[in-house]
Amino acid sequence: MAISVTKKSQFFLIFSFFGLISIGTLLLKSPLVTHHDGLPWLDALFTSTSAVCVVGLNSVSTDGFNWVGKLIIMLLIQGGGLGMVTITASAILLIGRDFSWSGKKVLASVSEDFPINGINDLIRTVIGYTLVIELTGLLLLLPGFLAHDLTFLEALWQSLFHAISAYCNAGFSTLDTNLAIEQNSYLKIVLAALVISGGLGFYVIYDVFHHKRETHYRINTKIVLITTFVLLTVGTLSIMGLEQLAAPEGMSCVDAFFQSTVARTAGFHSVDLSALSSSTQFVLVALMMIGASPNSTGGGIKTTTFALVILCIWNSIRGKTKLVVFKREIAQEYHIKAFAIMLVYVLIAVLGSIIVATTVDASEFTLKQIGFEVVSALTTTGLSLGYSDGAGIYGKTALIICMFVGRVGPFLIFMFLMSKNRQSHLSFPEEHIILT
Hints:
Blueprint: H1 5-28, H2 41-52, H3 67-82, H4 84-94, H5 101-110, H6 119-146, H7 152-167, H8 185-199, H9 202-209, H10 219-246, H11 253-262, H12 278-290, H13 303-317, E1 323-325, E2 328-330, H14 332-357, H15 367-378, H16 387-390, H17 393-408, H18 410-417
Antiparallel strand pairs: 1-2
């Protein structure tokens, strides 16, 4: 029986990540890689999964690896951030070949039914944009790291690693303190800009670079840009306000902006997260759950899903049955999918927290720490309140599963496991359900 194009694309996407994680685990356990605390197989798998899924959670310190191990982690971050499908497609174009018609259909399906005739341009735009942004990030980060009494080569390496890690929304750092930027606002701003650049999504970038004056931006682009701006603004003001209420010294505007930015799937931190108030940590969890934008290097339910859920709720309050945004009607199937994605994420986060909580001593880790960590893994963020370092075998395994599911997308996995959709041509009488 022939496999549908959609099934093929889902298969390629899921198993490309699985294959890259497996290769990364084997490479980290190779004789060329050493870690000053040792590296058991489970920790190698955890590190590889975290790098490929651009999470940033650590069961062992990244700084403890030798230069070969750090290089492997950086390459895994790059591969996971762009996706192996994109990298493979880029290699085909690089050697001057073109895709077959069936290959273009698969790539278009991976990219949410992007127009087939624009696939080549999309891949070129993604790779070109990535290289330019990462190179620019490297050059901008270099002066900041040179200010930390590093040699030129050390500063160059740190700039390269952090440029890739930030753009891919990974949150990995080769420094002991995650980032030596507590007093360096310049580095915070540059890294935040890289995180935002990687989190906008490749469709938005393509639309911006290929926009023609006589045409309008796609509705997806408008929603992503507006939602991103609103989340950054509201997140920054909320964190500043809540910390000001919790402590007289509060938090600086730069730190609040940085944490608001990286909470949406980047995973760096410039402050001690465990010292923040519970209300601020709750805001971080909400931002982590929303995440970045579709087809970006970040995770979460995505900005468009969040925006669509809010708009649907507002539409329902106003008593309207049709959702119109920027003079365009959004089909009802997207309403249902948005709520389904959000619900699936919430259910997995709750279930994952319950499972992990049963494997730890309540006196050692609180439910808040466990829940924060599970959401961080599921949304590929990487922020931590300290659970990952002390997690046991079952806890690390649960987090590995959450990271993989979060990167690939739980909704996509469910759709892959389901049989082919069967549309019924029968109509039945409508019935009302009491909801309130």
